[in-house]
Design brief:
The protein is built from 15 helices and seven strands. By secondary structure, the protein is of the alpha/beta class. Strands 3-2-1-4-5-6-7 form a seven-stranded mixed sheet, sandwiched between helices. The relative contact order is 0.15. One of its GO terms (molecular function) is anthranilate phosphoribosyltransferase activity.
């Protein structure tokens, strides 16, 4: 027994005192076991968010999540591409499209996601309209990765104990620490991760968690606030390699990408966003393709884990991403995914 209590944990947070990984792991364990009340969960979530999370605290939360998660074993070096959401941009599903394109370039992608939290259409909502069945058992989720080169780990299925926090999260109606846990708690534990984070304070914290786990990751944020690499201005990237975090800046102009606009990336409902995916894979050019190729290129660079400058590595990845679109490989990947996930 750890001996921790809610008064101890909450008193520390309200006083602005950082918790240990053991304390946050205990608290999350209580939540996931159904032993915490909605009031305790809400108090913890708001107090931790207000104080500001540390790498230690996030590590403890993720450790507890993995202890309660359904296992997912996918062979080989895998990649995840996901945004935290919460950027209020209502953009099209850039990371979902980038995931399909990266898989089309020959990388095995395990996408961890959920239904929409803040956008009009989350990845799960859009993928369902594209014909992907999300309610597959864990062994089928792994088999789909082998058959199609890409699969979707539905957070609600692999982290079912999070349902105990649902009432508190819903009734609070604000983003909390829980919003940042999904991207760093992929049940397949991919060796390479490309993570968009709209919150400039949380991006380096998330990078710190990946560094401790020995994951190759890029955590990035558009300087326009987008939880993706943006084409409207520069982006900041926290690169994680060999346990070290380095902050860098990326200018899309250095990659020959024309300046985009927020309007050019704006989405609507899930049906509209699904149609955007279809048009991209069918060869439509323009601002959406520019953003997807940039983000898929970065993800492929993380997965390749090669030496060189940031710009050179992204440029090489972008070349592979563009080829996957132009050759029809990305479209073929989606077709294989739909077929594999139909049963």
């Amino acid at each position: 027994m750890s001996g921790h209590t809610w008064p101890e944990v909450l008193t520390a947070l309200v006083a602005g005192t950082d918790l240990s990984a053991d304390q946050t792991s205990w608290a999350m364990g209580e939540i996931l076991a159904g032993a915490a009340t909605p009031v305790q969960i809400a108090g913890f979530a708001v107090a931790l968010r207000s104080k500001g999370e540390t790498v230690d605290e996030m590590q403890g939360l993720v450790d507890a999540m993995y202890q309660h998660a359904a296992p997912l074993a996918v062979e080989g070096r895998t990649l995840d591409i996901v945004g935290t959401g919460g950027d209020r941009s209502f953009s099209v599903n850039i990371s979902t499209m980038a995931a399909i394109v990266a898989a089309g370039a020959g990388v095995t992608v395990v996408k961890h996601g959920n239904r929409s939290a803040s956008s009009k259409a989350g990845s799960a909502d859009v993928l369902e309209l594209l014909g992907i069945h999300l309610d597959l058992p864990a062994d089928r989720v792994a088999a789909v990765a082998a058959e199609a080169g890409i699969t979707f780990a539905f957070a609600a299925a692999f982290h079912p104990a999070l349902r105990h926090a649902a009432v508190a999260r819903s009734e609070l109606g604000i983003g909390t620490t829980f919003n940042f846990l999904g991207p760093i708690a992929n049940p397949a534990k991919p060796a390479a991760q490309a993570i968009g984070c709209a919150d400039p304070r949380m991006a380096p914290v998330m990078a710190g968690v990946f560094a401790r786990r020995g994951v190759d990751a890029w955590v990035f944020r558009g300087d326009d606030g987008l939880d993706e690499l943006t084409t409207t201005t520069t982006s900041r990237i926290w690169t994680v390699r060999a346990g070290e975090v380095v902050e860098e800046s990326l200018d899309p102009a250095a990659l020959g990408i024309p300046a985009g606009t927020a309007e050019g990336l704006r989405g609507q409902d899930a049906a509209y966003n699904a149609d955007v995916v279809r048009r991209l894979l069918a060869g439509e050019v323009g601002p959406v393709r520019d953003a997807v190729v940039l983000n898929a290129g970065a993800a492929l660079a993380v997965h390749a884990d090669e030496a060189g400058s940031l710009v050179d590595r992204v440029a090489a990845g972008m070349e592979r991403a563009a080829a996957a679109l132009d050759s029809g490989a990305a479209q073929a990947t989606l077709d294989r995914w739909v077929a594999a996930a139909a049963h």
